[in-house]
Design brief:
4 helices, single chain, 27% helix, 4-stranded mixed β-sheet, 3-stranded mixed β-sheet, alpha/beta
Length: 205
């Protein structure tokens, strides 16, 4: 049975302030429902995300600001930082972890700058909402094997597809340089590259 993450609940002290913050980031406002004076549910969804975020009044017993380590995935960490800055989120500088596996809690073992080899999964930035709930962005360009089914790969937005096409174009240029000729079957090559990148399978040679 598929079990897909649908909602993350974030504890906030001021619902309207949180709503303003997250919608200013460009997150889609899905709902703002208050059936009575003591209960309010606001749902927002990050661009391209299949899972949404809920906050409000009487939706969680967690202390405001206690949600930490919430991860958003992007395919260009520098561009993501620029966008967050423009939208008022005050993100950290891009960093990578000294251990290179994931990242340590807090600011431990943070090394300034993206992963030196710009490996997928290796570069991060952090930001907080007005209550101090902690978010991280992680750059993922190629999935590890088994993360996605090649038969069900999909692109969540036009921007996501455009980024994949640009990476495929760059890789295909290297491919044509290797074979020393133009590839008349480039659409098929692009498709195989884009699917393999998402699913973590062997890319076309």
């Amino acid at each position: 049975m598929d079990m897909k993450l649908e909602v993350v609940v974030v504890p906030v002290s001021d619902v309207d302030r949180a709503k303003d913050f997250y919608t200013a980031l460009g997150w889609r406002l899905d709902a703002d429902i208050a059936p009575d004076a003591g209960f309010r549910v606001v749902q927002v969804t990050p661009p391209g995300s299949p899972a949404s975020v809920i906050f409000g009044t009487s939706v969680t017993d967690q202390a405001p600001g206690s949600a930490q380590g919430l991860h958003l995935v992007v395919d260009d960490i520098e561009a993501a930082r620029d966008e967050l800055t423009r939208r008022g989120a005050d993100p950290s500088e891009v960093f990578h972890d000294a251990g290179g596996v994931f990242h340590h809690a807090g600011g431990d073992a943070r090394v300034p700058g993206p992963d030196p080899e710009r490996g997928s999964y290796g570069s991060f930035l952090s930001f907080t909402d007005p209550d101090g709930n902690g978010w991280l962005m992680q750059e993922i360009t190629t999935r590890l094997p088994g993360r996605l089914d090649p038969a069900t790969t999909a692109f969540a937005s036009a921007e996501d597809l455009a980024s994949a096409l640009r990476r495929a174009a760059a890789a295909h240029g290297e491919h044509e340089a290797r074979i020393g000729a133009e590839d008349p079957d480039w659409p098929d090559w692009y498709a195989r590259h884009m699917v393999s990148e998402q699913a973590g399978t062997e890319p076309p040679s």
